[in-house]
Amino acid sequence: MTGRPRDPAVDEAIRRAAVDLTEQHGYRGLSMKGIAALGGVSKQTVYRRYRSKGEVVLDALAGYASTRLPSPDTGSLRGDLDALLTATFAAQQGVNGTLNRALATEALQDQEFAALLWERLIAPRRAAVRELPARGRARGEVGHPDEDFLLDLVYGPMWHRLLFDTAALTPAYAAELARVVALAATGGGR
Predict the structure, then answer these.
(1) What DSSP letter does each residue of 86-154 carry, written as one string?
(2) Is-contact 72 63, C-beta < 8 A?
(3) Residue range 66-115, pLDDT digits in tens
(4) Taking the complete model, does pTM exceed 0.90, yes or no?
(5) What distance in Å separates the CA atoms of residue 161 and residue 159, rounded to the nearest whole number?
(6) Which residues, in sequence order, are CB contacts of 96 under 8 Å at separation 6+?
(7) CATH classification for the domain delimited by 1-50, as one of 3.40.190.10, 1.10.10.10, 1.10.10.60, 3.40.50.1700
(8) At 175, phi and psi to the nearest 5?
(9) Which residue from 108, 16, 105, 114 is spatially nearest to 61, judged by alpha carbons?
């Protein structure tokens, strides 16, 4: 015998409550009890869906990333990267930056959560961004043989700044990072 199907409105209320509480009180102020209260559900309802507050936040961010972050096609790798990074950096200036930093903290303390973070958020975003150098390769812009390395060049500086100097994630920084990664992608000097 199976139970009732999950109500998507309840799932959304839980995710929204987690985001709102984090925005109001920071990640340290987030609790499963608070999520339940603001979401208008019982703690048991939250725990049936999520093992921890980190998993609630991860679910909220994964949904955001899959629907709202662009996978631009401007006609050049540099333009694509600039558009992607500008939008991504802008999103990190608000509660999304706080949530991403919280997820990084959780991942450092819990290997099982780190694997879940990779599977649900990081790997799908890398797969979407991988399209950019693949299109660049088809246009003759990419000679570097290792697309994973190019993705690391995109994400490494972003995460460094996100963790230690979020204010540096500006459109100018996005443009410069796009320029440098596009230059590295040519494979020059190899």
Answers:
(1) HHHHHHHTTHHHHHHHHHHHHHHH-HHHHHHHIIIIIHHHHHHHHHHHHHHHHTT----S-HHHHHHHH
(2) no
(3) 777 778 999 999 999 999 999 999 999 988 899 999 999 999 999 999 99
(4) no
(5) 5
(6) 61, 64
(7) 1.10.10.60
(8) -65, -40
(9) 16
